[in-house]
From TrEMBL:
Species of the source: Idiomarina seosinensis
The entry's keywords: Cell inner membrane, Cell membrane, Membrane, Transmembrane, Transmembrane helix
Chain intervals for the UniProt region annotation (Disordered): 1-21
InterPro entries: GspF/PilC, T2SS_GspF_dom, T2SS_GspF_sf
Biological process according to GO: protein secretion by the type II secretion system
Name of the protein in its database record: MSHA biogenesis protein MshG
Keyword Transmembrane helix in annotation: yes
Taxonomic lineage from the root: Bacteria, Pseudomonadati, Pseudomonadota, Gammaproteobacteria, Alteromonadales
């Protein structure tokens, strides 16, 4: 059987031609044995037309398959960042050692423990056997492989530098994982303190303060304002705590729903960057993510406008994503990168200086990598000192609660003791 192919040689040059083989897999193996990287392998013959009944049957099969696919996605575990890093590292080692892509994907699909990753890699392997490219196979599983991964793999295929692309991806994902872990570790302590304060507030108002209220009511004396405020708050908690729980639950899910909308996510992501102390850390972290991912994309040879589109998704912030897409539109209208970036008012003077110098010297990717390392060091230092900066605010909140309790509970007790001793 004759197959028509497109393949890249070791220098990245595109070659086309025909090859005789029993199937597409054998054709691809034949090309790789000749030192060519298959890009596309198709049978030389045409496809057989299908009738109306075949079309209906195909539509029914597709609808049933989509339902089964949805059920599988709900039951199977997600592919986390660790598994993507392992995949990129293994693909780099295998391709660098000269292992054919078909054999590499087949081996990884057999060895991985994640069911969703295993199923995706097996489908990618079948797509490669049919003559499709690796990036096209990965693009069919966007819930497993991000667009950033697919784009860089696509560039690596077209330039004949697939192993370098996987190495770049592994380094980028490792940096991203490290940043996420540092942010989670730094915000864990303040979260626990806030949860403990909320629980303590409920316990005091429902169980502790009512006991003192019964004692004060027996003396029939005028209570100070702090005590009256505490008793009023406690009565509200005791009488309406089911409604409070319902309101808090409804507010939580309502906020979640609003955040899922386009306008809600844009507003939420912009407000996050304005939160005292934490907002500046998040902004520097996202600038580091932008600089590193943009550097990786430009270094891999991705076109500027396409790189901006992919980086906009990589920053994981709707407000910053909108700004980056505005930069891309300005470039498409004919402006240069530095002027479009300055008009967006998104970047600090350091990033702007690096972009201008990089544009003049043709080394934007290198300079942005240095910017990313600078912001990563800044973020790391801020995260290490975050607990020390938040602790005074936490202590102040606890001190205010203790002061109100002392004024509301102990002041009337002291007055009653004074009246008793005077009497």
């Amino acid at each position: 059987m004759r197959f028509r192919y497109q393949a890249r040689d070791k220098n990245g040059n595109l070659q086309t031609g025909d090859v005789e083989a029993n199937d597409s897999r054998a054709a691809a193996s034949n090309l790789m044995s000749r030192g060519l990287i298959p890009v596309q392998v198709n049978a030389a013959g045409g496809s057989k037309p299908t009738g109306r009944n075949d079309t209906k049957r195909s539509d029914t099969t597709l609808s049933i398959g989509s339902v089964i696919q949805t059920m599988r996605d709900a039951l199977e575990p997600q592919v986390d960042l660790d598994q993507l890093i392992i995949f990129c590292r293994q693909m780099y080692s295998l391709t660098n050692a000269g292992i054919p892509i078909l054999r590499a994907i087949e081996g990884l699909s057999d060895s991985t423990q994640n069911k969703r990753m295993k199923r995706a890699l097996r489908d990618v392997h079948s797509q490669l056997e049919r003559g499709r490219t690796l990036s096209a196979g990965l693009a069919l599983h966007k819930k497993v492989f991000p667009k950033l991964v697919i784009a860089i793999v696509h560039v690596g295929e077209n330039t004949g530098q697939l192993e370098e692309s996987f190495e770049q991806l592994a380094l980028y994902l490792e940096k991203e994982q490290d940043t996420r872990k540092r942010i989670k570790a730094a915000t864990r302590y303040p979260s626990f303190v806030l949860i403990a304060l909320v629980i303590a507030l409920f316990v005091l108002n429902i169980f502790v303060i009512p006991t003192f209220a019964d004692m004060f009511s027996r003396f029939n004396v005028e209570l100070p304002w702090a005590t009256r405020a505490l008793l009023g708050t406690s009565d509200f908690f005791v009488n309406y705590w089911p409604l409070m729980i319902i309101a808090m639950t409804a507010s939580f899910f309502g906020l979640r729903y609003y955040k899922a909308t386009k306008n809600g996510r844009l507003l939420w992501d912009s407000l996050k960057l304005k939160v005292p102390i934490i907002g500046s850390i998040l902004e520097r972290s996202m600038l580091a993510r932008f600089s590193r991912s943009f550097s990786v994309m430009l270094g891999a040879g991705v076109p500027l406008t396409q790189a901006l589109s992919l980086v906009a998704e990589a920053v994981d912030n709707a407000w910053m994503e909108k700004k980056i897409l505005d930069i891309r539109r300005s470039i498409e209208r004919g402006e240069n990168l530095s002027r479009a970036a300055r008009q967006s008012q998104l970047f600090t003077p350091l990033v702007m200086q690096m972009i201008v110098v990089g544009e003049e010297t043709g080394r934007i990717d290198t300079l942005l990598r240095e910017v990313a390392e600078y912001y990563e060091r800044e973020t790391d230092y801020d995260l290490k000192t975050l607990t020390a900066r938040i602790e005074p605010a936490m202590i102040a909140v606890v001190a205010v609660m203790v002061l109100i309790l002392a004024l509301g509970i102990f002041t009337p007790m002291w007055d009653m003791m004074s009246a008793y001793q005077g009497g």
